[in-house]
Specification:
Distance between the termini: 40 Å
Largest sheet: 5 strands, mixed
Number of helices: 6
Oligomer: single chain
Helix content: 55-70%
Length: 316
């Protein structure tokens, strides 16, 4: 066997092994997408009703709760960036980080100091490599987040919002995550979670264009003032932390589904590329084998011809 043919065979064997790995990862990601989608769907009724309740209390009373009131001169904003703990997901993490960079630039242009909260090892590594300050970071659960994980992430955010700005608190709370649109489309988005704002009966910082609007429109019938027991402020104190937790949980689930979809797409592309490379290498190996055979035949024919010439000379 020629040296070139051995090289091709080794490469085919190596690429075939890689193809098996990427195919397995593709199948695992596909199964995880379904589970993540189910969790997103299961979380939506609670998030909608909670948004409805917050909207109803906010619009059904004349209370000036600090979590609903815009600061006259906002000075500090908290930004929660959700990335993944693992790579091999195409542009998933880079797109989320790019969206966060755009949001940070806008907030900085408005003269606001930014406090960064990061979910996922990839985001933590990005900020660490650039020596950027991170207020809190969370890792180890991005592939399969639970509500307990969402509560752990939301806790320091809620605390920061509830503190006075002069005491290290923040005036605004923003979140950057990847929204799962479909198996083929995932979009990095940023949204302001707090303070909530209302315009024409529609809560404008809700869960995108569907969930927040639907919940707030359903609450417009509660616009007249009501008496609350306990007070409306106490009700908001109890509801708004749950609201933040539900928003964070939904974002974590959306991000997990998006990451699995991105991994599936990246692994399918890698598998397809491996198949193409194997076909190409197989053609080259066949050509090399044919060249070796042709060379061997030529050597045999040449040797036979030389032997015949030698025998003919000895006969004379």
């Amino acid at each position: 066997m020629g040296a070139q043919l051995r090289v091709y065979k080794r490469r085919i064997k190596s690429v075939t092994a890689t193809k098996k790995i990427t195919r397995a990862m593709e199948m695992i990601a596909a199964s995880r997408i379904i589970k993540a989608q189910r969790k997103v769907t299961a979380s939506e009724p609670y998030a909608k009703e909670l948004t409805h309740a917050v909207t109803a209390v906010a619009q059904g009373s004349d209370t000036k709760h600090p979590l609903l009131t815009e600061a006259e001169q906002p000075k500090r904003a908290a930004v929660l960036l959700i990335t993944s703990d693992r790579g091999l997901a195409g542009g998933y993490n880079s797109n989320a980080i790019k969206a966060a960079e755009g949001l940070n630039a806008r907030l900085a242009a408005e003269g606001k100091e930014i406090e960064s909260y990061i979910v996922g090892s990839k985001g933590v590594a990005y900020y660490g490599f650039r020596d950027r300050a991170v207020k809190e970071s969370f890792t180890g659960f991005t592939d399969n987040p639970s509500y307990a994980d969402a509560k752990a992430v939301a806790a320091p955010l809620i605390e920061a919002v509830q503190r006075e700005t002069a005491e290290g608190g923040v005036d605004e709370l923003h979140i950057v995550y990847t929204e799962f649109v479909s198996m083929m489309t995932q979009t990095a988005v940023d949204a302001r979670m707090l303070p909530l704002s209302f315009a024409g009966g529609v809560e404008s910082s809700g869960e995108g264009e569907g969930e927040g609007e639907g919940a707030a429109k359903g609450a417009t019938a509660l616009l007249p003032l009501y008496d609350f027991e306990p007070s409306a402020e106490d009700v908001l104190d109890a509801l708004l932390p749950r609201y933040v937790e539900s928003r964070v949980y939904n974002a974590l689930l959306q991000a997990a589904a998006s990451k699995h979809a991105a991994t599936r797409r990246a692994m399918k592309s890698a598998t397809d590329n491996a198949e193409d490379l194997i076909k190409s290498l197989t053609r080259l190996a066949n050509a090399a084998r044919q060249a070796d055979i042709t060379q061997e035949i030529s050597e045999i024919v040449g040797g036979a011809s030389a032997l015949a010439d030698a025998n003919a000379g000895s006969d004379r």
